[in-house]
Amino acid sequence: MPEMRIRAAVLERSGLSRPFAESRPLSIRELELDPPGPGELLIRLEAAGVCHSDLSVVNGSRLRPMPMVLGHEGAGVVEAIGPSVDDVAVGERVVMVFLPRCGECAACRTDGKMACIPGSAANGNGTLMSGARRLRRNGDSVQHHLGVSAFATHAVVDRRSVVPVGSDIPAEVAALLGCAVLTGGGAVINAGRLAAGQDIIIVGLGGVGMASLLTAVALGHGDVIGVDALDEKLQRARQLGATAAYAPAEAVEGGIRAPLVIEAAGHPRAFETAVALTAPGGTTVTVGLPDPADRSSISPLVLTAEARTILGSYLGSAVPSRDIPFFADLWRAGRLPVEQLISSSIDLDHINEAMDGLADGTQVRQLIRFPQGRSGD
Q1: How many CB atoms lie within 10 A of CB 109?
Q2: What is the crossing angle of helices 207-219 and 231-239, to 10°?
Q3: What's the average pLDDT block by block, 10 residues per block, for the chain (377 residues)?
Q4: Are residues 79 and 30 in the same domain?
Q5: Smallest Cα–Cα separation from 98: which of 118, 75, 123?
Q6: Could you say which of 265, 291, 312 is where a domain stops?
Q7: Which residues have C-beta within 8 Å of that of residue 8, sequence separation ≥ 6?
Q8: Residue 228: which domain range?
């Protein structure tokens, strides 16, 4: 199979000034994509979500090798299969997963608690699991983002970076299962282990936080309370089934408490709010990814005297091959309306404007939709 030409959003340099619509950190380029190697797949992208993990690379909070094709939350159709892949068929729809698991390292034996060691190393190096790079520009290598690089018409990924789903799962739903739902919903069921009759508070109602809220509502246990600084997100939370929704100060000063609190904002003040809203004996689960230089202030005495627990949860402490089918079945049953997370749809050419909307906090999940049809059509 020869190399192919694709269109992709390439980040050349991070830390440019806002608005990104003017500084244009991402440029749409034509790249060469090598065919899939052993254990790899060629995916035609159908939909990709725009997430804070992409923004954190654009604004410089997360340092990555460049140039890099961003995007880590996507879904598409398998167009070609490399050697040694025998459990996925051409034409299958797959969810792309930004943390591949080797299934053999010590971290992979923690049932989702720890990130795969080889997978994390490959992500940091901008490669696929094999150490290879399949993206090139004029013969020079271009880096992969988290093994996915979903801001492109096509991607070559490791087989361990996808989970097949049925064609009955729409592409826009499938895309969000791979990050927003897996991270937010996984924090509820895996790290938080929401129990029957238990109340829950979600602090930060972006895509991940709203996915936590949808999952908690779907489980139908106790009260589900949303907390966010933006009135429109509080209103949206109520529409999606939240028992109540409050601004941060209103919740803290009003004495609102729950035994399980999910922090999904990725901001140190949001983390402090989440701890303050956790009831004695309760658990605070943090899934947000703040700037590495950020710091929070909490009282160790409160942790001791009130028997509190604080847990970190990366990718919802999930095992994607196990958890994505679970969430897909919740959607099929009409209990998890994932499509309600989509605040707007865009094309690839408007990716810089999408980053501004994300940074402003006005969007829940922006979704890139790609033209349909097989390669060469």
Answers
A1: 10
A2: 30
A3: 92 95 97 98 98 94 94 98 96 96 96 96 97 96 98 98 97 97 97 95 96 96 95 96 98 98 96 98 95 92 96 96 97 97 96 95 93 57
A4: yes
A5: 123
A6: 312
A7: 28, 29, 31, 69, 135, 142, 149, 151, 152, 153
A8: 193-312
